[in-house]
Design the sequence.
């Protein structure tokens, strides 16, 4: 089976000049995939709109109508960062539906794994309002569909965007079959994702938040994945892994700085693909979130596709972060104690 991807030119229509989350992001990605010959190796999964019933798995009807009506009136802002244009409602509905469609293609065995190249992004979107450039919760909707429609017992969401996915966490909070794992810069927008946010009630322990100070670096992520992310995922035994793939943790991103390199990002992608092969028959779907340095974004996605295709190629023209990396070994040990991972195989 091939690696699949979702992309449609309609995703370029939600845009605002001067805003960091604009159509040039996807243009840069598609140009890179085409120029390297990777695009022709992939299976295209058609984009489609989410149904109203699919959107309402996570979002309140009143909020859906608010976005639709705002777009019909010519646009506006859901918050100071999150714009709506006349095209936004249609595009955001298709972004949500296309993420679900990519997930369905993997679960139905049409493709082995996939990447949903969609925008606007989704991991900050809440049930009743959008924020942080996000309109609808693409990844949360895919996870809830996998659970409610396909009957999967367990889904793991790994979020390596530099910002905490407060929306995803909130939208899946009531489902004990979904585990949410996030590495993110902290304190930083949106201000959530403290280490002791671990869920409550039936989902207590299902949230694994890993807040990091600026400048963490590649080695920190490798230690965190080896000590926390991988054993926690193994313990949960997922039937599917979904990845909120934000490339804004790179040392050259203009909006944040966790000091990852492109080689570091490639390592994350290869590690997650290998984990899916080990635990859930290779079923993994990456979904585009942030990333605002266009060169980093394009190469980051390219390296992720190499990982999905099983290639060993890694492209990193920007090299490692010039900043010294932090020693986080004690922090990893603290996280392992908090999440009762000390007896897990690393």
Sequence:
């Amino acid at each position: 089976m091939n690696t699949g991807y979702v992309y449609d030119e309609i995703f370029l229509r939600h845009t605002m000049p001067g805003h960091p989350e604009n159509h040039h992001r996807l243009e840069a990605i598609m140009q890179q995939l085409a120029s390297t010959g990777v695009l022709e190796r992939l299976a295209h999964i058609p984009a489609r709109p989410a149904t109203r019933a699919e959107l309402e798995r996570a979002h309140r009807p009143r909020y859906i109508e608010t976005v639709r009506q705002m777009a019909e009136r010519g646009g506006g802002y859901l918050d100071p960062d999150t714009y709506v244009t006349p095209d936004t409602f249609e595009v955001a509905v298709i972004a949500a539906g296309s993420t679900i469609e990519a997930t369905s293609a993997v679960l139905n065995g049409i493709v082995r794994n996939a990447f949903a190249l969609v925008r606007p992004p989704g991991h900050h979107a809440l049930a009743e309002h959008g924020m942080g450039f996000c309109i609808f919760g693409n990844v949360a909707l895919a996870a809830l569909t996998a659970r409610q429609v396909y009957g999967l017992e367990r889904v793991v969401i790994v979020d390596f965007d530099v910002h905490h996915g407060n929306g995803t966490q909130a939208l899946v909070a009531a489902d004990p079959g979904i585990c949410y794992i996030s590495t993110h810069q902290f304190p930083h927008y949106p201000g959530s994702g403290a280490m002791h946010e671990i869920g409550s009630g039936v989902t207590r322990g299902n949230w694994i938040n890993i807040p990091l100070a600026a400048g963490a670096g590649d080695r920190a992520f490798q230690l965190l994945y080896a000590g926390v992310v991988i054993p926690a995922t193994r313990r949960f035994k997922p039937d599917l892994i979904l990845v909120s793939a934000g490339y804004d943790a790179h040392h050259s991103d203009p909006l944040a700085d966790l000091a990852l390199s492109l080689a570091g990002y490639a390592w994350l992608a290869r590690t997650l693909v290998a984990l899916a092969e080990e635990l859930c028959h290779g079923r993994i779907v990456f979904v585009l979130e942030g990333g605002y340095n266009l060169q980093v974004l394009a190469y980051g996605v390219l390296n992720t596709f190499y990982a999905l295709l099983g290639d060993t190629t890694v492209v990193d023209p920007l090299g490692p972060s010039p900043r010294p990396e932090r020693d986080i070994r004690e922090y990893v040990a603290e996280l392992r104690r908090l999440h009762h991972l000390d007896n897990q195989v690393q």
Observations:
- The chain has a mean pLDDT of 97.
- The domain at 3-338 is CATH 3.40.800.20 (Arginase; Chain A).
